[in-house]
Amino acid sequence: MNKKELFETLNSILENKISILKEAFAEKREDLLSESKSTAGDKHETGRAMIQLEQEKLSSQLVQLQKQRDMLIRINPEKQCNTVQMGALVETDKGAYFISTGLGQIKHEGSLIFAIAPTSPVAQAMLGKSVHDTFEFNSTKQTIHSIA
């Protein structure tokens, strides 16, 4: 697997999600402005409050995605890792993991790869391990076959 291409795929996914959230936030801003032109009394206030709550939720999601992107861009995808660490692409007998950001299961080059944060329980179980080492997660032992 090509770690640099995987990195670019993850970055593209995050940028796309951020863009979608920014568009949704802008739509809610427009909704709020159009709602402020209404004179329906209590119904008007309820509508504004609902829109503001949705904006807050979108804003929180946007902050989380930006944190994930910031974590990802700190990785040098061309760096070869000898142990499991941030930025390592790890292949085990049970699956492949990219220690980067918690995006979950990604299909890349016909393979399923789990993009996981270094703070996730499975990453914590394998941090510092080398090729041929084993680790246990959810009562399942896994052997590391390669690290890139």
Description of the molecule:
Helices cover 49% and strands 21% of the residues. It is of the alpha+beta class and 148 residues long. The chain folds into 2 domains: 3-73; 89-147, no CATH class. It has a 6-stranded mixed beta sheet with strand order 3-4-2-1-6-5. A hairpin with a 2-residue loop joins strand 3 (104-108) and strand 4 (111-116). Helix 1 (3-36) packs antiparallel against helix 2. The longest helix has 34 residues, at 3-36. The N and C termini lie close together (9 Å).
Characteristics of this structure?
single chain; 148 residues; alpha+beta; 6 strands; 49% helix; elongated
The overall pLDDT, averaged over residues, is 91
What's the total number of strands? Answer: 6
Q: What is the alpha-carbon Rg in Å?
A: 21 Å
Main sheet specs: 6 strands, mixed
Shape: elongated
Q: Regions with pLDDT < 50 over 5+ consecutive residues? A: none
* Physical arrangement of strands within the biggest beta sheet: 3-4-2-1-6-5
